[in-house]
Structures are given as structure tokens and as C-alpha cells.
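Review form for a predicted model. The reviewer records the input and the model, then writes brief findings.
Reviewer: anonymous (R2)
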Amino acid sequence: MNLSDVTSRAPRVRPRIWIGVAVYLAYLAVFYAIWIVNGIDYARVGESAETLLKWYVAPLAGGLVVITVLVTVLGWWRPSTTGRRSAPRWVWAVPVVMAVVAVVNMIFGDFTTVTPTMWLYLVAGSLLVGFNEELVTRGQLMVAVGSRFGETGVWLLTTVLFALLHLPNYFFGIGSLAFLQVFIQFGLGSVYYLARRMTGSIVPAMLLHGLWDFSTFSANVPWAGLMAPFLGIAGVIVVVVLLRRRRGVVQA
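Model under review:
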């Protein structure tokens, strides 16, 4: 994150790492509290309209309120959502391939059990997850971490925290697979990071994230899941190459 970008936009509250982490934790607290109250079983989220509403839309709607209020209070909307482009065009290849995989996953998916109400909740939840998780991690958290660290630190810390966001799934129905999910999400988070840096806007990362989740929750085929580790590895490699080329400084 380019510190000059942050300071020139005169946020209401000066960016600090602890503030960004506090916002991140506040979001998680509300999200997981709603999961606990609603009796989440992660493996069954996409089972019916009722499960989608209780375990997908409801916690994300609660999280939306939290992140929207906090970013507004801090005055971090502009630096959290915009910045300068900082990656060559060829970097588009990884996010584009990820989007293609998500679309192919849906093309070959089985939607015979998906009702109109389920489609509504799937679309709403996917838009919310893209907006919320990107604003929390590759938005306000990048602003906070960028107040002290260079680009390598911004990528590494924000992507690690994004990956760890999924670790509590251990307690909500998937057990030890949550550790594998954390590693995969670190890679996918790097792809979302590339989408953010390539365009200078958080919107493409939000849309890609939402598309991916929509594909994996709606289509009963495993192609996206099987491809996820490879996409993640490609994303990490490309980020590392960019950081090395720019000697650890990729401007936001």
C-alpha cells in the first residue's frame, strides 16, 4: 500500500495496524456469532433455501452492517477501494483463468435441486461474501497494514489473515479439512490480491470472489475445488515474481 495514497486522502482516523485488525476481528465476531446462534453445519450450507438463508445470507448480512459502519466511521472508504494500478497486463491471466474455471464449473453443474428461492439466496450471499471479505481484508486491512509495511508485508499479512478467516470452520462441520482450506485460501487470496492490484480497484476482486463462491456453492461438481490448489499456487508464484521485480514495492 502506498502510504502517500493513504495520507493524501485524509482519512478521518489515521491508519494503524491494530485498528485494521480490530475491525477484522469485529467482523468475524459478528459473523461467527450468527453461525453459532443458527446452529451452522458448514457441509450442508447449500442444502436448501433454509440453510442458505440461515448459514449463508444471515451471517453475511450481519457482517455487512459491521464492516460498513466501521469503515465509514474510520473514513477509509476511498483508500480501501481505490488506488493506482500496479501490475502488468499479463498478470490478468491468473484471475481470468479462475473466472473461467468458475463458469465451467457452473456449466457442467447439476442444478436440478436448486429452487428459485435458493437461487435468490445464492446470488445475494455470493455478492455479500465478495463485498464483505474483500473490504475486510484487501480493503481496510490493506490500508492499515500499508501504514507501516511495504508491499511484501501488505500482501503477506493481509493474505494470511484472509486465509485464517476460514480456520474456525474446523469447529463448524469440516474438522481437520479446515487446515487444508486455510492453505488453499491463502493461494486464492493471492489471486484476489492480483485482481485488486491490476485494476487499482477492489471491485474486480469482489466480483471474482463472489463468482467463485457462487460456483462452488451452487454447482454439484468438483472441478472448481480440484483446480483451487493449482490456481492458488499460480497466484502466489505471480505475486512473488512481481514483488521480486519491483524489489518489494508494488504501489497501490
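Findings: Residues 3-245 form one domain.
Further findings: Residues 61 and 243 are 35 Å apart (CA to CA).
Recommendation: see findings above.
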